[in-house]
Design a protein that fits this description.
5-stranded antiparallel beta sheet, alpha+beta, 5 strands
Amino acid sequence: MRFIIPLILLTAACSRPVAVTKPTRATDPLGADAVKNSTTPTNPNAGETAAIRNAAGDTTNRPQWLRQRIAAVLAERKPNPTIRIYRYQFKGQEVYWQSAPCCDQYSTVFTLKGQVICHPDGGITGNGDGKCADFDKEKTNERLVWQDPR
């Protein structure tokens, strides 16, 4: 009898209702909201958060091949981790780096014309294909170009 009363009080105290709400604002289809609310790699040359948001929403400077890659990513089921595309300077040229869609897959570095240069990381070893092992050390001027908004 002595244990019944505290048990009744405990169950009464723990039965508070919990309200669950959904966001009322839709996510920006270009991914600006996703970029604004996420953690991205930092680089002192990358500029401020506003510049990153503008880069994510800037579709005018994207080559046709890159727009097609983005459309292909959006046509597939959302990968985990989220696909991101950055623009860098690497060995005297402007390049695009696309993150890997999942585990043990390569990330890819492209020329401005969409030709594959190398796979700097990923794969079973995590070291890429070995063709640009110095990519992380040599890349500069990081700019986020696109991030999957889903």
